[in-house]
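ingest -> fold -> write
write: protein_1
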Amino acid sequence: MARPYTRGLHDLGNGLWAYLQPDGSWGWSNAGLVVDGDRSLLVDTLFDLKLTREMLDAMRRAVPAAQSIDTLVNTHANGDHCFGNQLVGGARIVASSAAAREMAEVGPARLAQLMSQAEEMGEVGAYLRRIFGAFDFDGITLALPNETFDGETSLTVGEKQVRLYEVGPAHTRGDLLVHLPAERAVFAGDILFVEGHPVIWAGPIGNWLRACDRILAMDVESIVPGHGPLTDQAGVRRLRAYLDYIAREARRRYDAGMPAFEAAQDIALDDYSSWGDAERIVVNVHSLYREFSGDQSPPDVPALFAQMAVLANTRRH
């Protein structure tokens, strides 16, 4: 049965909650809470301090154990899943080793500086203001993970067992899944976007497909995506089909010698017309082209945002 997609805290039962932020577009991420008795675990913080405070206040009003968060798990390094970490003072902060390294490379000060220059950046600046203008990156001191792991590990929240599975590099370099086997639930981070186009910052795409398969092999009822409404296995299958489709379409165009941006404009997305942020196909095709060619250099993020701005502007008019 479909659950409502409304802003705020949603009780999943069995001591699990999801915090949702419609519409799930750039920066509007989800988070989670796991409690047992007086013990608590938070899955991700939000993109800025104001939003994270509002989330923590909502959790504390609803759940006594959330007054003091024992453990924070960051599912990956993107700021909309970790920039609020400093507000969870004293918590054990857990992430994959790769995610922790990536977090240290791109901090909130860089985004704050970029947004301060957006007025002077023409079309790409207008695009950045549209997608990130609602967030305040000032005053953030990123609290990095103080405990890392590679592969997989187990945590406990009271009597609840929590399994962490590293499935990156995929969306980013260090993605992980948070699985509660007994509660039949998984917090998927940005391995799962629902009703929005995913974005492949790292790849390879095969890792992301295998991560989807891992979720599909789980006996779970509640699936909390990194962005978008709560879902079930059907949502995972839909995302997997998208990834498989764009990989095949990009390969055809790569083999034909079509430039990456031209390929991004050429790939038909009619079957996903209801999904938001279609311009992310730019990043996805560039990532796939680098993978096809064996190019292991990092993505040119400013150039990719410039191309996404062009494509988004074209499709809005």
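write: protein_2
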Amino acid sequence: MPTNKANFSFNLGSGGVGPVTKILLIAILVLSLGASIGERKFGFGISMLDFRIDNVLAGELWRLVTYPFVEGSPFGLILSMIVLWFFGNWFEQRWGARDYIRFFAISSIGAALLAIPLSYIFNFILPFTDLGVAQGPDAALDAMLVAMAFSSADSKILFGFILPMRAKTLVFLLLGIVIIFGIQTGAATLSIHVGGMIAGYLLVTGKWRPSYLISKIRRQQKQRRSRGLYVVPPRDRTLN
């Protein structure tokens, strides 16, 4: 994925909302409201579209694609749309519509896939239960935050729209909040957040590509061959 060194700032409506961000916002709003109505009226709605590890493992793979677009909580829906408005618009302007929508889609699906093994690991080592569920675009937003931390390290974000904070600092703060929430309540959705952050890191650094892994293995093999067998350190060329 492309990177950009420009600083991030919250400028509401700066340059207008990009077409992809606008489509995502409308899709999340319409599908969340429609799924909520369907859940109440027909028993079919958000519970069939959100991300649940057990259901995905049972073959309900559509949840990997649908969960970013449904949010059951009114507060969560409003907050997700506001944050997506800011972050999504910034990335769309920097990367362009095509790379932005690819990033949103791949990071959302990748976060869900990574959350499956992470949930089992967290449940084994942590003193609280990872729920393994997710609704809304939070995973993609986590990926965007990590991408911003790597591509624009000095960017500052207004946490809570009040407190200026570096993107990297906000990443650790969000993880801390989720962990504290889990310890206090006994359950949290840590795996999907960590999955989103890992997906963002892999996408913005390009380390998910097979070509990167192959190139790294070849470099290591070449370095091993070039070392040879030295009786004394290589800096001393009198004997080797």
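write: annotation protein_2
The beta strands are 51-52, 129-130, 133-134, 156-159, 163-166, 187-188.
The chain has ten helices and six strands.
pipeline exit 0
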